């Protein structure tokens, strides 16, 4: 998923002093140790996801290491199982690193499957998106956005209440079933967070109330919104992760024109996290991979793939984001309000939304 303009050696030495890096005592030593290992084994990294193809190529070119890529289409659960299945294996089927959904980080830590490591840019990663002990850390995220077909929708909604407008009858769709799909659950949560004025404890309940009103008014379309249904006009407004919406905008090439809007309130971020296997056959290569991903270069690699780097606010504040990349995104200030729900908040909202959708909203979302 990504060089850092800062001098890494001092930071890395500081990590050594804190015990975070056991196998290398400077950045130069880390690079040397990784090269001695010779390779890195990854898993579940499709090249078209968040620009991973270019990120992997950049890492290989920078450090001269081979990257052994296992099962690019695996899911987070498969990655965890791969660590478990290869605890005593130092061969090519044992992953060194994983990239998983947020909830998988704490559970993998609890099972003893991860080892701690704090990258040199650690302090610029939001606290809510990382384990305090360094066992897992968010790397990129999307925020829930409105993907709008502007051939059909002339008054483009700017915030959640705007979706209730009379001219959006039979227009608004979720990108999944909120009884089971995380993206859809998070969209309902985001609408509820807006209605509850930021009170996470009420977001699930308020989100259901909002969608009940949206459905009663006739604006909600109970099908899974996709690029095709957006283009055809069946779902001219789709609520989905911004990086999916932005990729659709490119794919559709103006036919129809697509506007991607980050809502004014209820800006909810969905995080994917990185971690190093406790049984990594190439632990130094794994740490070097993490240094690369969290460097400026690595973080901008995500941005090129429309995934929001976890260090976005820090990069923007320091003028590190190229103008051409920013031009392809909604305004930077739109992301400054992004909320990173805690695991507890996510779990509570999921429980309410998935189990009460039928009784409160009563719309059966079709695939």
From TrEMBL:
Signal peptide location: 1-24
SUPFAM superfamilies from the UniProt entry: Periplasmic binding protein-like II
Keywords associated with the record: Signal
Protein name, UniProt field: Spermidine/putrescine transport system substrate-binding protein
Recorded coiled-coil stretches: none
